[in-house]
Write a structure and sequence with these properties.
The complex is a heterodimer of chains A (about 130) and B (about 425).
Chain A lengths: L1 E8 L4 H11 L4 E8 L3 E8 L2 H10 L4 E5 L1 E4 L6 H11 L4 E9 L4 E8 L2 H11 L3
Antiparallel strand pairs in A: 1-3, 1-4, 2-3, 5-7, 6-7
Chain B lengths: L3 H15 L3 H8 L12 H5 L6 H6 L13 E7 L7 E6 H17 L7 E4 L7 H13 L2 E4 L5 H10 L4 E4 L1 H10 L14 E5 L5 H11 L2 E8 L4 E7 L6 E3 L3 E6 L12 E7 L10 E7 L1 E5 L5 E5 L4 E2 L4 E3 L2 E3 L1 H9 L8 E8 L2 E9 L9 H19 L4 E5 L6 E2 L2 E2 L2 E3 L6
Parallel strand pairs in B: 3-4, 3-5, 5-6, 6-7, 18-23, 19-20
Antiparallel strand pairs in B: 1-2, 7-8, 8-9, 9-14, 10-11, 11-12, 12-15, 13-14, 16-17, 18-19, 21-22
Bound molecules: zinc ion.
The site of zinc ion has 7 residues of chain B, from loops.
């Protein structure tokens, strides 16, 4: 799945501006995370039709990037996320970042994972039947 | 080759001539020079205060002319961005000398009376058009006085008249090249072989682009109306720089006005020899370059200057170090994927100058991991430090967030003004 990342300067109201743009484009944000430093941040979102949204944001002078990520269901039991991560680590996968979200209609906890080695991840997904 | 004594004689002749203008009499008297004979050594000459554009403005329009108006047969002027233009005058002999200087440079390029020279510099108060025109006529070539503009017609004439030498600004040459297809003319139909381009700064990349589009060898010509016009220096085909004509004495000075050794970059200051109507005495060109003395395989002996690398007015002095926006640009562009949109902010924190460089991020340089963005920042910081010798803060900003005026970006914001 492609995640949409947007570069944000740490100026007052900039995040709201970008979110307003997404609202204007009638984009539903399934999941969102924000990473930031003193001067800037990166907004990461999971949306429908990320390519189309990216093009529209570019037209409005945003710097955007589409990044391949995995959206995985987290087993619904204590230690579910930990056991899943343990498997990935055992396969030599380096997780760059991850963030969790819950979709209301399914009431299913899910996690967005960005890894360094895409091929290793593909193998692990198959091996453990993750989705 | 000019001996020291010949050099001093030439400088004395110029001093004698400028002393005909009361303004210079007063200015030189202040440093103890009343007669040309007071110049006994080069050090005496270096005591003479520099002449600036401002001196010309104060004496607008004809106050610095060294010959009576009766002997002046032509006026040129350069339009200042502010205030009155700077006006220069030429005697009949000056016009002949100028034509000879241009013709001599052209001859070094192998241009002869067999050539067809299209002059697409503007004709008028600007020296470009007529300066090249007279030089080309002196050579005995066929001159097409097109002046600037009217691109479709330029190209049609270029093809139909068999133009072999094109003279214009480099940006117009590029535009002519880009317009060929639209005019329905192919490069192969043209007979162009040499392009003489000047009157504005250009890069090697532009040169390659022009050469590829028009199918010619492009050379750089330098000059400014205050010292004559185009022809002060002209490249030869050996690629060693621009040979300065023997009627100009160049000095390269540091920001304090001290002479710099050969090869070091500083401000070019020019004095003319045997130019009568408007002699230039240590005129500040505000252009940055370096000069070397020697003999070139093309036959020129004397001073050779490098392509102008910037303007003095653009120079920043940060913690005592000279920094040019072009250096910052070079550093930024050396990191792949970065667009040349940046802003240099200089401020003072306590006793220390600090430099911050805002760099616009582009889609090509944006990575969504903070770690990679931080690596990009530190790479930019490193390059800037390598090239300027100064540490700088680098801040990544969004595209189009740096203010642009008239399509040209503002490069520097100096916030030190008013702070002690
Ligand atoms: Zn040469």
């Amino acid at each position: 799945m492609l995640q949409l990342s947007v570069f944000l300067e740490n100026t007052k109201g900039r995040l709201a501006e970008v979110l307003n743009l997404l609202a204007e484009f009638n984009v539903n944000i399934r999941a969102l995370s924000l990473a930031d430093t003193k001067d800037y941040g990166v907004l990461r979102v999971i949306v429908e039709n990320p390519e189309e949204v990216a093009a529209k944001l570019k037209d409005r002078n945003c710097v955007v990037k589409l990044t391949p990520v995995w959206v995985l269901k987290v087993p619904d039991k204590p230690g579910g996320l930990a056991s899943m991560l343990n498997k990935l680590v055992a396969e030599g996968i380096v997780v760059e970042y991850m963030y969790a979200f819950v979709e209301r209609e399914k009431e299913q906890a899910q996690v967005v994972i960005r890894v360094r080695d895409v091929e290793l991840m593909q193998k692990a997904i198959k091996k453990y039947n993750l989705e | 080759m000019m001996s020291q004594e010949e050099l001093l004689n030439g400088l004395r002749r110029t001093v004698e001539q400028v002393l005909k203008a009361p303004y210079y009499q007063k200015k030189l008297a202040e440093v103890g020079i009343h007669y040309a004979g007071d110049i006994k050594t080069l050090d005496d000459f270096r005591k003479i205060p520099l002449t600036e554009k401002e001196d010309l403005r104060q004496n607008y329009p004809f106050g610095l002319f060294a010959e009576p108006m009766d002997n002046i047969i032509r006026i040129h002027a350069s339009s200042g961005t502010t205030g009155k233009p700077t006006v220069v005058g030429y005697t009949r002999e000056d016009i002949k000398l100028w034509a000879k200087i241009v013709a001599k440079g052209f001859r070094r390029l192998g241009i002869t009376s067999k050539d067809v020279i299209q002059v697409a510099y503007g004709y008028g108060l600007f020296t470009g058009g007529m300066g090249i025109h007279y030089g080309a006529e002196e050579l005995g070539a066929v001159v097409i006085p097109m002046s600037g503009g009217n691109t479709a017609k330029q190209l049609m004439i270029m093809r139909d008249f068999g133009t072999t030498v094109l003279c214009c600004t480099p940006s117009y040459a590029l535009y002519l090249g880009e317009s060929l297809a639209e005019a329905g003319i192919s490069k192969d139909e043209l007979k162009l072989r040499i392009g003489v381009f000047g009157a504005e700064p250009w890069t090697d990349k532009m040169r390659q682009e022009i050469e590829a589009r028009l199918g010619l060898t492009a050379v750089d010509i330098y000059g400014l109306s205050e010292t004559m016009g185009p022809g002060v220096s002209l490249e030869c085909l050996k690629g060693v720089g621009l040979h300065i004509d023997e009627h100009f004495y160049p000095e390269i000075l540091d920001p304090q006005g001290n002479p710099l050794p050969e090869g070091e970059v500083g401000e070019l200051v020019l004095t003319t020899f045997d130019k009568m109507g408007f002699p230039s005495l240590r005129y500040r060109t505000k252009d940055l370059t370096s000069i070397t003395y020697g003999t070139c395989v093309c036959g020129h002996t004397g001073w050779t200057m490098q392509r102008v690398s910037g303007r003095v007015d653009d120079m920043l002095i940060i913690r005592g170090v000279n920094v040019f926006p072009s250096q910052i640009e070079e550093a930024i562009l050396s990191v792949g994927g970065i667009e040349p949109h940046y802003l240099i902010i200089v401020d003072r924190e306590g006793p220390l100058d600090v430099m911050e460089v805002l760099v616009e991020l582009s889609d090509a340089s944006f990575e969504d991991e903070i770690r990679e963005l931080e690596e990009l920042q530190s790479k930019l910081r490193q390059r800037i430090e390598n090239i300027t010798g100064l540490s700088a803060k680098v801040r990544l900003v969004e595209p189009k967030s740096i203010p642009r005026s008239e399509g040209k970006a503002k490069r520097v914001e100096d916030r030190r003004k008013g702070k002690i």
